[in-house]
Amino acid sequence: MNKYKIIILIQCRLSSSRLPAKALLPIGEYPSVVFCALRAASTGFPVIVATSTDKSDDILEQVLRRNNLQCFRGSLDDVLLRMTEAVAAYHDDDLVVRLTADNVFPDGNFINLVVSQFDESKFDYLGTSSPQDGLPYGLSTEVFKVSALREANRKANTPFDREHVTPYIKRHFRCKQFLLEHVPPSWQHLRCTMDTFDDYLRLLNLFKQIDSPLNTPWMELVKYLELSTKLGTVEKKRQEKRYENLVFGTAQLGLPYGVANQQGLPSEEQALALMQKAIKAGVMCFDTARAYGLSEQRIGKALKANSKEDIHVISKLHPLNYLSDEASDEQVRFAVKASIYETCYHLKLSKIDTLLLHRWEHRYQWREAVWDELISLKQDGVIKQIGVSVSTPVEVVEALQEPQIEHIQCPVNLLDWRWRQSEFLAAISKRKDVVFFARSVYLQGLLTLGKTNWPNFPNVDASELNELLDKLVTRFERLNRKDLCLAYVRGLPWVNSLVLGMETEDQLQENLDLFNTMPLTLKQVEETNQILPQLPESFLNPAKWKL
After folding, report:
1. Where along the chain do the CATH 3.20.20.100 domains lie?
2. How far apart are CA 119 and CA 102, in angstroms?
3. Structure letter (DSSP) for residue 183
4. Mean pLDDT across 89-97
5. Residue 203 CB: number of other CB atoms within 10 A?
6. pLDDT, average across residues 533-539
7. CB of 124 within 8 A of CB of 144?
8. How would residue 259 be classed by pLDDT, with cut points 50, 70 and 90?
C-alpha cells in the first residue's frame, strides 16, 4: 500500500435540491461536512473537500478553512471535471477514495478495509453497492486510480457521466464490488445517509445517544443504528397501529345486552377505562345509538378525556316508538331534532360523524318527515353522513336506491345465507360509494355458546350445528369459534368493517388479537357456505328465539 498515495476526495455542495445546505447542519458538534471529513481522516489519509465556485458555496469554504480542512473549488455542474482538477497534483497510480458529504458513517478504518480489498483484487475500481453488498444505505465509498478518473474526464461526454463522476469508469474499466464477510442480514435494511431532513433528524438523535460520535468506529455506529432503528420501528408501529375495520359496539356499555352477556351493565368507571384502552390500542370508531341507554353519555366522557381528533362516532336516531302513526309533520320533525341534539349533547360534539336511521321503515313513515328533517340537518352541517341500520337484504336493496345513503349496517354471520342472494349482490355492486358495517357477527353471542345454551327452534339441530362449527375451526386451523366467525365475515369482500360489542378488557384484547389474524379466503368462505345448512329465516332473528 506504500507504492502509491491515497487521497480522500469528498464531493459536496450547498445547493442540494432535496435538503439545501445540509452540509452545514450540525452533527456531533460539527457541521456535517466537517464531521464527515474528520471521520474519514481518522487514520491519517489526506482529505480534500471538492465543492463548487458558485457563490452559494462561499460559506462552505469558510467553514472548511476554519476547521483546517483542505477545500478545492471547481465547476458546479461538471462534477467530473471538478473532481479531476482537485487531484491534479497526484500521479496516475495514486488512489482516489471518493465519498459524498451526506454519508458520515465511513471512517478511516472502513476506508482501510476498502483500500485493502482494492489492493488485493488487482481491479481498476472497487466500490460499495447498496443493497447488493448488504451494508446500510449510506455506508458508501469508491476507490479507483487517478488515471481512471482522468480518462473518464477526457472521454465521458454525456451530462449523466459528467454529473455522477464514475459511470464511465464502471463501463470501461475492470470493476469489483466491495464485499464484507459475515454481514448481518439486518444491515441491508438500515439507512445512514443524510438525503432528507428526516434522515438528518434520525442521525442527530442517534449521535446524541453516543458519548463520542466523532471517534466511534464505523461498526459500532452501525450497531447503534440497528438498535435505534428497531426501537423506532416498534414505537412507530405502536403509534400508527389502527384497527380501521374494528368498530367498538357500545350497546353493552349502556344497557345489559345479548344472550351471552353474563356480566350485566359495567360501571361508568369500567366503561370509560375500557374505551380509553381501546383508543390507546388503535380502535378509532365507536358505534352507539340514542336507544342504548347510557352509551352515548359514556362515549362523550371518554372522548372528552382523549386528545385524539380522528375518532369517528356512529350513532342512530331514536326509534321514535313514542310517536303515534298520526303524528303531525311538526311533531315528527321536533322528535328528530330532539334525538339529534340529545346525541350531540351526550357525545359532547357539535356535529355527528355518521347518523343512522335505527329502522329503515322510518325512511318513508310519517309522510317522509323523518327523512326530510335528517336531510335538512345534514345540509346545516349537524350531520356529516347519513345511513341506515337494516335487518334484511331486502331493506338493503331498497336503501341502496336512496342516493343520500352512504352507510349501511346489517346483521351478518356465517349462518346467515340471505346475504348470498343474487339480488342483494347485484344491488351492492352498483353502489361502490356505500360502506357496509357488519354487526351481530356472533348472532348476539349465540355462536360462541355450547349447544345446551341454544334456543329450542323447529327444524334447527343445535347439536349438529355445534359439531359443524367445531369441525370448521379445526379444518381452517382457527383458534376457536370466535376466530372462525370473525374470519368468515372479514373474508366477505363487500364488508368494510365489523361492529363488535364489548364490556370487558378481556373481550377487547381478544378481539384485537383476532383482528391480527388473517380472514378466511374466498375459497374457505365458499366452503363454509356449502358445509353449513340453510336454516329457517326466522331463526336468524333473535327476537323469535325461545330461550
Report:
1. 246-449+492-517
2. 26
3. -
4. 96
5. 27
6. 90
7. yes
8. very low
pLDDT tens across 94-108, in order? 999 999 999 999 999
What is the per-residue pLDDT for 230?
A: 67
For the chain, how far is it from start to end, CA to CA, in angstroms? Answer: 90
Residue 431, C-alpha cell as written in the block? 353502489
H helices, E strands: number in the chain: 20, 17
Thinking of the domain 246-449+492-517, which architecture would CATH place it in?
Answer: Alpha-Beta Barrel (3.20)
Dihedral-angle region of residue 145 (phi above 0 means left; psi in -120 to 50 means alpha; beta otherwise): beta
**Count of CB atoms within 10 A of residue 347's CB?**
25
| DSSP bridge pairs for 501 | 249
Residue 319 pLDDT greater than 80, yes or no: yes
CB 210 within 8 A of CB 218: no
Pairing assessment for the beta strands 125-127 and 142-145 based on DSSP bridges: antiparallel
Q: What is the pTM of this model?
A: 0.58
Beta bridge partners of 31: 26
**CATH architecture assigned to 6-238:** Alpha-Beta Complex (3.90)
Distance from C-alpha of 383 to C-alpha of 354, rounded to nearest angstrom: 7
Q: What is the grid cell recorded at 1?
A: 500500500
Name the CA dihedral angle for 513, 517, 523, 526, rounded to a multiple of 10 degrees: 10
Give the bridge partners for 389, in sequence order. 409
| CATH 3.90.550.10, the chain: domain bounds | 6-238
Mean of all residue pLDDT scores within the chain: 90
Gap between the Cα atoms of 472 and 491, Å rounded:
15
